[in-house]
Amino acid sequence: MRELLPVVIDGAIYASWLFVVAIGLTLIYGVMKILNMAHGSLYALGAYAAASLGGAWFAGGHSPYASYAILVLAALIVGLIAGPLLERGLLRFMYGKDEIVLLLVTYAVFLILEDVIKLIWGVDPYFIAQPYGMLGNLDFAGLTYPVYSFVLIAVAIFIGIGIAWVLQRTRPGKLLLVVIHDREVSLAMGINVSLFYLTTFTAGAMLAAIGGALTAPTVSVVPGMGVEVIVLAFAVVVIGGLGSLPGAALGALIVGLVRSAAVHYLPQVELFSIYLVMALVLILRPKGLFAGFEARKI
Amino acid sequence: MNPRDRTLVTLVAALVVLLAVGALLPPWQFLATVALAKGCAVLGLMLLLRTGLVSFGQGLYFCLGAYSAGGLGQFLGVTDALVLLAAGCLVAAVVAVVLGFLLANYRNIFFAMLSLALSMILYGLLVKSQALGSTDGFNVAPPTLAGWALSGHDGRFFLYALACVVAFAGALTLDRYFKTPLGRLAAAIRDNELRVEYMGASVRQAIHVKYVIACALAGLGGALTGLTVGHIDPEMAYWTTSGEFVFVAILAGTGSVAAPFLGSVLFEIVRSVAYQHSPNTWQLALGTAMLLVIMFLPRGLWSIFATRGKVA
Amino acid sequence: MAPILEARALSKRFGAVVAAANINAAIEDDSVVGLIGANGAGKTTFVNMITGYLKPDFGTVAFEGRDITALLPREVTRIGICRSFQIPQLYDSLTVRENLGIALGIVLRNSRTFAWARLPKRVPGHAGTLPEAAATMLERFGLTDHGDRLAGVLPEGIRKLLDIAMALVVKPKMLLLDEPTSGISSDEKFDIMDRVMNAVRADGVTVLFIEHDMDIVSRYAQRVMAFYEGRILADGVAATVLADEEVRRYVIGGPQVRLAEEAGNANA
Question: Is 60 exceeded by the pLDDT of residue A271?
Fold first, then answer.
């Protein structure tokens, strides 16, 4: 019992991070049926942008507490540039192709973005640790946690509730649910589907970048940092059910807790426990825990 | 005219050319051996692609094959290249038979994702296995062939020649396979599974068999890579390794059994040149090339050489 | 004569929709039966339940006295029931000849007694080797000129013919055709049905066909089963069923007649 609480807290922290990182992926898949392999690269772009902009902010001697806003701003800028560029410039020519072809297209984008990052920022690591250290630590149940981790939990909850609110309470959100349900009918009803696609992809890119920007203070920002994030995010959304928002939350929670339990009790299995869970869910419920339905074929 | 004869002639010619180039140009041998080894894995992937399946987890079998061969040498002192290659191939095939029961139920991105998850499980296991050198992996003892050491000037050529023969045999076998009724089912399954079932064939069973063949080839390629490079590590099971196979397979196209090897050799040349001259932009070039192929040459680079009708 | 196919108490629901409500039917060997009914009346569901695509909620299907309710489509095919589809199910990226070649290849493979046996040279049930058998099939269906064209780009009528030819490659004892003439211009309909019926009747194959065109039904069907809301409204000799008052009102007249009827009742 003594160890249970830290397992849960660590799990919740990790789950929050996973949720922020994965939510954009499932959103894009849900609306556009694109499993975006470049998601991890957008995450890395967000981290780099945050490190650069944040670094400049601190170098300029501005208020350190505004740096959190700078991190988010950096992510929003990345999303606003990369999202429309990829959707308008490339993906819109691919709609209607097989999901697997779209997967390969985004894999190519992943390869490209990995080098774009190196071209812009070089291969040396960046650090932006101030926002992490500034908040200090918190003693909780006899253990010490960085306050920043709890900020992450709050952000995850905020984003989750925010997206749910947009989808269920606002008119564009409700229309988006219609687009998700049936693209053809939406087109026939005069809904501007291509605008929704653009918005969704940009929002998804922003969310990935926010994930990266908020992670930047806790790690060294290096090339290739998005490579593992891709598969982790895949694991989360596949477990929850591709395209399902509550599924992503549940998936993040499951992966977070499993990993944290593994780290505490059985460190040897840490890494593969996540993929084991992913494989098990795929085996037992092939379409994930929150699965959709299929139409009649003949 | 009979297209079967043309394939055989092409492959024999390619084998002769490869052996001659290797004999005249020793520096070429290492790169080409690795390329041919990876080409085996891509060849297997091509079989899956023709069936309409994309596996983002062939690294699992590539790595299994390498670790089986390397492990036999490391722990049991077996060094005979043929035995090691057979072992890599066999272990991969056995694992694929088991996992195939599962994967044969999946299609599309679910097949891609589950295969990826399975390969990442192996990666996670190996990274934490002290006995197998965790992230560093371990060195593979220099192989022998019928008692001869496959190292030194002549030995390396023989290893290269062995790779050429293995690739040749793999390509020829798969070409023959594509001409059997079961092999022909690949395109049929890709186009319309429902019709295949209503003709009285089992789609699951056909996919299972193709999966095992593809994975055995990946295992063979992995073992060969291990013997050639002399070192193996868990990175072989990481998803980026599998992604590289997918990349080469898409780029080369599924038009001919020679395409995966041609693609693989091209890829290794481009990589080694690009690594030296512009290490930070070569992935960018690869990604761009892949986009162009997907958009303008959906049948891959091979379709430039070949016309329709050769597709099995 | 004992029936070749017997459906007993077949029932199937999709949510609130009753697609089959206690269907009982016995099909005589060597007969030609037309299935009629409005869209959603349960004709395709009936065919899908016979061929193993759908499992009924209740009831059984027996073929030649054997219960086949639980069989999969491929198993149903292997015991001699084949079908065509409303939307032709072809290998679109392959040529017509390759489509038939693959079908013949499956027959060849299934004819082996054990998995590693050598394939026979001749395709069972066909004259000659695989390419010869494919050529014969092309000829019989008048598809020879289209042999080397991709199935995906053919006109609908040719696709329908190929779809039916594929079903006949297996040499079935019973053939189910799902709207063989839908999407085909009216002047081609009889030509296509003639080709199909000639190919089929020579072998004494039992035929069940779903059809909306009553001219086709009355010309080819010996017996007609009229479906309405998941039930069989009438079943018997073609001319009798087609003349039946209820059938004329609910099935042949279609929704217009029914709506007019209801409107009349409301006014009264």
Answer: yes
Under 8 Å between Cβ of C110 and C170 = no
Q: Is A295 on the interface with C (CB under 8 A)?
A: no
Output C19 or B216, whichever has higher pLDDT.
B216
Q: Which residue has the higher pLDDT, B44 or A231?
A: B44
pLDDT in tens, B139-155: 888 888 877 787 777 88
Of B113, B123, B280, the CB nearest to A119: B280
Give per-residue pLDDT as tens, A194-211. 888 999 999 999 999 999
Query: Which sequence spans correspond to the domains of chain A?
Result: 4-284
Quick check: A28 pLDDT over 70? yes
Render C205-264 in DSSP notation, one character per residue: -EEEEE-S-HHHHHHH-SEEEEEETTEEEEEEEHHHHHH-HHHIIIIISHHHHHHHHHHH
Give the per-residue pLDDT at C115: 65
C53 vs A: CB within 8 A:
yes
List CB contacts (< 8 A) between B112 and chain A: 100, 103
Residue type, A193: V
Chain centroid, CA B196 distance in Å: 27
Which of A98, A296, A297, A298 to mutate: most C Cβ within 10 Å?
Answer: A298
C93 touches B: beta carbon within 8 Å: yes
Distance from CA of B121 to the nearest CA of A (A): 5
Q: Which residues neighbour A205 within 8 Å (Cβ) at sequence distance 6 or greater?
A: A24, A42, A78, A79, A82, A83, A86
In this structure, of A55-59, A81-85, A211-215, the range with the lowest mean pLDDT score is A55-59
CATH number of A4-284: 1.10.3470
Cβ separation B117–A271 shorter than 8 A:
no
Of B182, B185, B201, the CB nearest to C74: B201
Mapped onto helix, strand or coil, the DSSP state of residue C163 is: helix
pLDDT digits (tens, 9 = 90+) for C10-56: 998 888 888 888 889 899 888 899 999 888 888 889 999 999 998 99
CB-CB neighbors (< 8 A) of A104 in chain B: 54, 246, 250, 290, 294
- Edge to edge, the sheet with strand C17-28 lists C17-28, C3-14, C58-63, C66-67
Say yes or no for a CB contact (<8 Å) between B194 and C83. Answer: no
Handedness of CA C242, C245, C248, C254 (dihedral sign): negative
Does B112 reach chain A within 8 Å, measured CB to CB? yes
DSSP per residue over C37-105, as a string? --TTSSHHHHHHHHTTSS--SEEEEEETTEE-TT--HHHHHHTTEEE--SS----TTSBHHHHHHHHHH
Window A:116-135, CB contacts with B under 8 Å: 116, 118-119, 123
Q: Is A289 exposed, middle or buried (0-12, 13-18, 19+ CB in 10 A)?
A: middle
- Output the pLDDT for position B306: 60
> d(Cα B219, Cα B213) in Å, to the nearest integer?
10
Contact of B230 with B137, CB cutoff 8 Å? no
pLDDT for B5: 58
Structure-model confidence comparison of residues B150 and A227, the more confident one = A227
* Residues of chain C contacting B194 with CB distance shorter than 8 Å: 73, 89
Q: Are B283 and A282 inside 8 Å of each other by CB?
A: no
What residues in C contact A298, CB-CB < 8 Å? 44, 48, 53, 85-87, 89, 178
B50: helix, coil or strand? helix
B199–C91 CB contact, under 8 Å: no
| CA distance to A159, A264, C157, C242, C261, per residue, from C233 (Å) | 58, 69, 31, 11, 18
B-contacting chains (≥3 CB pairs under 8 Å) = A, C
Question: What is residue B308's predicted lDDT score, i.e. its pLDDT?
Answer: 46
Residues near B69 by beta carbon (within 8 Å), at least 6 away in sequence: B84, B85, B87, B88, B140, B222, B223, B226, B227
